[in-house]
Amino acid sequence: MADSILQKKSVCVVTGPTRGLGRSIAYQLSKKLPDGSLFILLSKNKALLDEIAGLIITHRDEIRVVTSVFDQGSSDQGQFDNVFQDCLVKAGAHVNEFEQAILVNNAGTLELLELSRDLDNVNAVNVFFSTNITGCVVLTAKFLQVFSATAMKARVIINISSLAAVSPMKSWLLYCMAKSSRDMMMKVIGEEEDNIRTLNYAPGPLATDMSVIASTETKDPSLRAWFEDQVKNKTLVECDQSVEKLITVLEKNSFANGAHIDYYDEA
Ligand SMILES: NC(=O)c1ccc[n+]([C@@H]2O[C@H](COP(=O)([O-])OP(=O)(O)OC[C@H]3O[C@@H](n4cnc5c(N)ncnc54)[C@H](OP(=O)(O)O)[C@@H]3O)[C@@H](O)[C@H]2O)c1
After folding, report:
1. Of the residues 14, 21, 41, which should be mutated to test ligand 1's pocket, given the most ligand atoms within 8 Å of the CB?
2. Number of Cβ within a 10 Å radius of residue 217
3. Which CATH superfamily is domain 5-206+238-262 in?
4. pLDDT at 2 (0 to 100)
5. Is the CA virtual torsion 69, 202, 2, 184 positive or negative?
6. Using one digit for the tens of pLDDT, what is the confidence trace for 24-50?
7. Whose CA is nearest to atom 20 of ligand 1?
């Protein structure tokens, strides 16, 4: 049986840790990873990055945290080229001091929510794919370069996926495409790279800002009504509950590279 992923001293990158699921992932993983681990937290909102960094350090002073304001939808090459090196320098850390590097590709957006026949604006479609695909691909490439198979004995990439990766949802075309593409990205990287574990984790319908958007902006009436009902009746899955399931999967460490594991799957 493989060792738990969470037993190794790690450098752990989380995108979108300021709200919702990403915040819960960063906080819960910081309670599990060994002393000396380093968190690199990336998103657009500096104040909220500082807040989650402070929360982690308050509860685990043996864990180091660095934050960087980062827009995954940006086309500024320099932002991607330097982000990991800058964060390591800021932390006074070197790749060699870690047993493992973890990347949690959590940051994502739901809008543009339109029926396929209405997705006729080139710029709007490009903006969606820049944030949800292009930026994720380029950040992941930089992660694989800085935390290379030669430098690291173990690497883990977790893509936060969705039921939408495997099941069509009316008026959610771009989101479904992005999630299924990112699932495939984990399968390809799992084949290409050495010393790597790749996982797609679909966290269930969550009580976050994104589900509120789903309940108001979804154009398909039956899907919108389902989200409205879930938000109104507070029946969505709590982020901490979903992260507990993710932690169980990481501790068990028996998934095939590129597997799609859902919150509702049996542990
Ligand atoms: N909510 C659900 O029901 C549900 C279900 C299945 C899967 N998911 C997936 O779970 C993940 C998290 O969703 P959530 O519900 O927690 O969403 P959320 O509450 O809207 O939070 C999204 C996070 O992504 C970050 N983000 C958004 N755009 C960004 C950008 N351009 N650059 C960097 N960071 C960016 C945000 O940070 P800043 O605003 O600080 O930049 C925020 O921390 C997403 O991948 C989502 O698709 C959600």
Report:
1. 21
2. 15
3. NAD(P)-binding Rossmann-like Domain (3.40.50.720)
4. 82
5. negative
6. 999 999 999 999 999 999 999 999 999
7. 210
